[in-house]
Design goal:
about 210 residues; alpha/beta; TIM Barrel; 6-stranded parallel sheet; 10 helices
C-alpha cells in the first residue's frame, strides 16, 4: 500500500469535508454518504464529545474513507486521535512542537500570515491550511502569498461554501478546500444521507485549476 502523505490526502478530492459529529451513531452512515459522493478524506473536528468515537467507528467500518482529525491544538489531542484511528491531522494554527510530534503522520497545520508561513516552511512543511480564509482576506491573500512562497500548497478553510469554493480552487497554490457545507447540521441530524451524497458529488465535481 502506498504511504499516505498529506499531499495524497489533499489530492483525493477538491473538497475535504469539515465535520462536527454530535452523535456517534451518525459517524458511519455520514462517512458512507460522503464517500459515495466522491469525498474520501474526512476531517472530524474535536469539537464534540463524540468526535474520537466517530473517528474510530469510521476507521473500523468504512474502508474507503480516510478519516482525519481536525481542531488539533495540543499534543494530547494528537495522541488521542492517532489512537482512535485518525489517518491525518489538521490544526487551526502552527505550533513547532505539534509539527514535530506529527512528523510520522500526514499533518496540515494552519497559518494566517507570512510570518507563520515562514515558520512552517522552516519546520520542513510545504502543505498548509489557510485559516480562517475569508476572515483573513481570502483569495487576495493567497494570491499575494504565492509570490514569496512559491513552493507552498494551501487548503483554505473558514467561510468557504459552494458559492466561493471554485474561486479558491482556481488559484495555482490551492490544492483543495475545506468546508462544512457538504454535511449541513440539519441534514445530518435528520439522517438525510441521500441529500449529503448529492452535495458531496457536487463538491467532488468542482475542478481544481
Amino acid at each position: 500500500m502506498t504511504e499516505l502523505t498529506i499531499e495524497r490526502v489533499m489530492a483525493l478530492a477538491p473538497v475535504i469535508p469539515v465535520l462536527t459529529i454530535e452523535r456517534r451513531e451518525h459517524a458511519v452512515p455520514l462517512a458512507e454518504a460522503l464517500v459515495k459522493g466522491g469525498l474520501r478524506a474526512l476531517e472530524i473536528t474535536l469539537r464534540t464529545d463524540a468526535a474520537l468515537a466517530a473517528i474510530g467507528a469510521i476507521a473500523a467500518a468504512v474502508p474507503d474513507a480516510v478519516p482525519g482529525v481536525g481542531t488539533v491544538t495540543t499534543l494530547e489531542d494528537l495522541a488521542k486521535a492517532r489512537a482512535a484511528g485518525a489517518r491525518f491531522a489538521v490544526s487551526p494554527g502552527f505550533d513547532p512542537d505539534l509539527a514535530e510530534a506529527a512528523r510520522d503522520m500526514p499533518f496540515l497545520p494552519g497559518i494566517a500570515t507570512a510570518s507563520e508561513a515562514m515558520a512552517a516552511q522552516r519546520a520542513g512543511l510545504r502543505c498548509l491550511k489557510f485559516f480562517p480564509a475569508e476572515a483573513m482576506g481570502g483569495r487576495a491573500v493567497l494570491q499575494a502569498l504565492a509570490g514569496p512562497f512559491a513552493g507552498l500548497i494551501f487548503c483554505p478553510t473558514g467561510g468557504i461554501g459552494r458559492n466561493n469554493a471554485a474561486g479558491y480552487l482556481d488559484l495555482k497554490n490551492v490544492r483543495c478546500v475545506g468546508g462544512s457545507w457538504v454535511a449541513p447540521r440539519e441534514a445530518v441530524l435528520a439522517e438525510q444521507w441521500d441529500v449529503i451524497s448529492a452535495l458531496a458529488a457536487d463538491a467532488a465535481a468542482l475542478m481544481p485549476h
